[in-house]
Structures are given as structure tokens and as C-alpha cells.
Task: inverse folding
């Protein structure tokens, strides 16, 4: 009697293969109790970075480099943020991606598209829309008030979206603002976090970049709030108007805090009446509100957008000589 024919092989799975488990895992124990109590390591099905042709390095930050890349199938360009394996805990990468994804849909926030990995090295890459150069590339250059209003409307709108999504960026600065033909986009959520319940402290206090760090962070207050994003927006507004950073220089954290504590009002009066005497009263009110030393008195993003300075309808060409910053 002939032997039965072998059963047909099961069809190949169409699901993404799970990425190699590069997260730290609990050591295995031979005892049943320990095995039962141990948490199983999480595994994530990440697409391959090999789907992208990596072209040029276009940026570099504390947590990784940014690479312009082309999707091999569609030909579309993207920005890959390369996060080398071991440089950051994978949970921190997940928080960054989740914070940025929570802000999806706003035109002034860089959109995250995917998270991919190099199966050999374990390196992780955030796939984002490709925009272009940063606002820092255009500084120092003073701008007219109407142009600054147009730019600040976009940035404050981005902050309103982040805060409504329960996200604090914590590192807003010109380097983390990209320009797409006059449209500004906040990027790099590497320092971002979700908002803690009232009274619950954050582990990190001094997170961002010193000249744009809020007074409460300089003072070591771990129970801060979304106001730490509004302070740097005030710094950026002043920098756009004057062409130079308002604070910091070569100061240490303690020196900057002491200077702001003693001299902030005098510095703002000098700015308004000596450096920018033609600045409108409405613009002064917004800048003064964003740079309130006390975070409880600082303007929120929603309050700022309701201010009369932003009351006019936004028009990209509402002042003489407008041109896209990177056009």
C-alpha cells in the first residue's frame, strides 16, 4: 500500500515579521514560580529601513541624526531620524513617537509616518515628512512685525495642538522649527512627554536648550506644565523681531535664573522702548504675556491666539517683500 501523500505546506504569513527583541528583558529563571511571575518581553512588528534609500544627512541632534531618504517603491522623500541601538531606551523612543503621533494632522507640526528598524543592528528610525531647513539657518535677521505675527500665529497654533493633545514639547527652539515655503513646522519630539496629573513631578527638569529654558525649570521645579513651551515661544518672538537671542549668552543655569529674577522687567522695557520703539502695543502685550516670569501668569497658547494681535485673518503675503525663507 502506497504511503500517504505529505500534507501541503501552510501558506506563508503576510504579516510583518516581528523585529528582533533588542529591549532589555528579565533574565530567565529555571523555577516555575519565577517563570510565572516574569513579564514576557514586548515585541514590535517594525517594517525594514531597507525600504528606504538613504541619501544625505540633513540634521543632527542630541538623540540622533536626520537623513533624507527616498522610499524605494513610491519614490517619495522622507526624513529618517536615526536612533542607534543602545543610545536610548526603547521606551523613550516609544514616548517620542507617541507624542508626535498624538499631534497628527496639524499643519505646523512635522508628521510622523512610521517607525522602522534595521534588523541586523537593532537601530530604530522614525519616518517623518521631509520639510527642509530650520529657522536657525535664517538667523540672525530681524523681521518686520507683520511677518513675525504670521510666523508666531503658526507656532502658537502648533503649541495649542500639542497642549490639547496632552503633550509638552520641552525643547522648542529655532533649530527645532522647520520651514516649508513659508509654513513653519515644529519638529524633534525627542524631549517631549505627556502631561502629568497636577502635582505629579516630572523626572527631568532641565530638559531643553538653556537660552530657551523657562524660569521655573531653571529654579529646579519638577512640577511644571505646558507653560515651559510658551516661554521659548516668547524668546523666539523676540529673536525674530530683533535678529538676536534675548537671553542666555555664556551664562550658567544659576546665572541665567539670577539675571531673569533681577532684570527681566528692565530688559523687556529696554526691548520695547529702545530696541523696538515702533513695535505695536498689541505685539508688546503678547510678548510680555509669553515672557511672564511666573508661569501662572504666562499666556497659554489658547489665550495668545485669542489676543487682538492675532485677530486679523492670516495672509501669507500681507507685508512688503515677503518671500519664503527657503524658497
Result:
Amino acid at each position: 500500500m502506497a504511503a500517504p501523500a505529505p500534507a501541503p505546506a501552510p501558506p506563508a504569513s503576510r504579516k510583518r515579521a516581528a523585529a528582533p527583541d533588542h529591549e532589555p528583558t528579565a533574565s530567565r529563571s529555571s523555577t516555575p514560580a519565577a517563570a510565572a511571575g516574569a513579564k514576557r518581553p514586548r515585541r514590535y512588528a517594525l517594517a525594514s529601513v531597507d525600504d528606504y534609500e538613504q541619501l544625505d544627512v540633513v540634521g543632527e541632534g542630541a538623540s540622533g541624526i536626520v537623513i533624507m531618504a527616498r522610499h524605494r517603491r513610491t519614490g517619495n522623500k522622507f526624513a529618517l531620524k536615526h536612533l542607534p541601538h543602545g543610545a536610548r531606551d526603547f521606551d523613550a523612543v516609544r514616548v517620542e513617537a507617541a507624542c508626535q503621533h498624538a499631534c497628527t494632522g496639524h499643519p505646523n507640526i512635522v508628521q510622523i509616518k512610521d517607525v522602522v528598524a534595521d534588523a541586523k543592528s537593532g537601530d530604530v528610525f522614525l519616518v517623518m515628512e521631509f520639510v527642509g531647513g530650520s529657522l536657525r539657518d535664517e538667523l540672525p535677521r530681524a523681521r518686520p512685525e507683520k511677518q513675525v505675527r504670521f510666523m508666531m500665529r503658526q507656532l502658537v497654533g502648533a503649541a495649542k495642538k500639542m497642549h490639547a493633545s496632552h503633550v509638552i514639547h520641552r525643547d522648542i527652539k529655532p533649530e527645532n522649527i522647520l520651514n516649508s515655503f513659508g509654513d513653519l513646522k515644529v519638529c524633534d519630539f525627542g524631549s517631549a512627554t505627556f502631561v502629568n496629573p497636577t502635582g505629579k513631578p516630572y523626572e527631568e527638569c532641565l530638559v531643553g536648550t538653556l537660552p530657551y529654558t523657562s524660569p521655573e525649570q531653571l529654579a529646579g521645579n519638577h512640577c511644571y506644565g505646558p507653560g515651559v513651551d510658551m516661554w521659548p515661544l516668547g524668546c523666539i518672538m523676540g529673536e525674530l523681531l530683533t535678529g538676536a537671542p534675548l537671553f542666555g549668552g555664556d551664562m550658567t543655569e544659576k546665572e541665567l535664573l539670577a539675571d531673569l529674577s533681577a532684570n527681566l522687567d528692565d530688559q523687556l522695557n529696554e526691548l520695547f522702548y529702545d530696541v523696538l520703539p515702533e513695535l505695536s502695543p498689541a505685539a508688546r502685550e503678547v510678548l510680555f504675556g509669553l515672557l511672564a516670569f511666573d508661569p501662572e501668569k504666562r499666556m497659554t497658547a489658547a489665550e495668545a491666539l485669542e489676543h487682538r494681535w492675532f485677530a486679523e485673518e492670516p495672509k501669507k503675503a500681507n507685508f512688503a517683500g515677503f518671500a519664503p525663507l527657503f524658497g
